[in-house]
Design brief:
By secondary structure, the protein is α/β, with parallel strands linked by helices. It is built from 8 helices and 6 strands. The protein has a single domain, classed as Decaprenyl diphosphate synthase-like (Undecaprenyl pyrophosphate synthetase). The chain has helices at about 15-20, 25-45, 65-80, 85-90, 105-115, 135-145, 155-160, 210-220; strands at about 5-10, 50-55, 90-95, 125-130, 175, 195-200. A 6-stranded parallel β-sheet has the order 3-4-2-1-5-6, sandwiched between helices. The longest helix is centred in the first third of the chain and has 21 residues, at about 25-45. The protein is globular, with a radius of gyration of 17 Å.
Length: about 230
């Protein structure tokens, strides 16, 4: 089986799942993060090298203050409380996005997690927090302008080196749970030739068997890159 080296994940449907279960919507987010940790392990066991997961988008700041605060604290706790698991799984953590917008305690937790896992090499786990694809493209342009790089020196490779995902391979496979079928302002440049897969399952109920089915679908596809 051909295994994608870089998977992008939309762990969508947490609130809808909680509502269906008669639970508080915020509890869906907690269950969703727990499932993300399992998903990362499943990916690593199948030979995936990079997993980039959408944790909180630039548009998510428009949600209620209660939900935003809960998500910020949840992300902080998960980064702090799972260091042993990251070590056991050999996961190297990196957070991409607008760090300066995050609470100081979350920024500190990010630094601690990245430092504690910097030598891990079994799986590169990218968490996108306060991230947007348009923001990523704009910040890359600003960096290039600040560096005063001549226009005749700017090509796709140089531009990609200024994106937040610099140094990583382009995503091979994008999996979106939750039934929605759109990119929602995520890795817009990077996903130019990614294969897309949409699952009707709400993210908290997405299982290892669902991943197997998605990977089987990826294996059946022929990637031509325009050739």
């Amino acid at each position: 089986m051909v295994i994608p080296q870089h998977i992008v994940l939309f762990p969508d449907g947490n609130r809808r799942w909680a509502k269906q279960k008669g639970l508080a919507a915020l509890l869906g987010h907690k269950q969703g993060y727990n499932n993300l940790l399992d998903f990362a392990e499943w990916c690593k066991n199948r030979g995936v090298k990079v997993l980039t997961a959408f944790g909180f988008s630039t548009e998510n700041w428009n949600r209620s203050e209660e939900e935003v605060s809960y998500l910020m604290k949840l992300l902080e706790d998960c980064l702090r409380d799972n260091k042993d698991r990251y070590k056991k799984e050999g996961a190297k953590i990196r957070v991409i996005g607008q760090r300066d917008r995050l609470p100081k305690s979350l920024q500190e937790a990010i630094i601690e997690a990245e430092e504690a896992t910097k030598n891990n090499d079994k799986l590169f786990l990218n968490l996108a927090i306060s991230y947007g694809g348009k923001w990523d493209i704009l910040q890359a342009i600003k960096k290039i302008i600040d560096e005063k790089i001549p226009t005749d020196k700017i090509d796709e490779k140089l531009f990609e080196d200024h994106l937040s995902t610099a140094g990583l391979p382009a995503p091979d496979f994008i999996i979106r749970a939750g039934g929605e079928k759109r990119m929602s302002n995520f890795v817009l440049w990077q996903a130019a030739y990614s294969e897309l897969y949409f699952s009707p399952k709400m993210w908290p109920e997405f299982t290892e068997q669902d991943l197997n089915e998605a990977l089987a679908e990826y294996d059946r596809r022929q990637r031509r890159f325009g050739k």
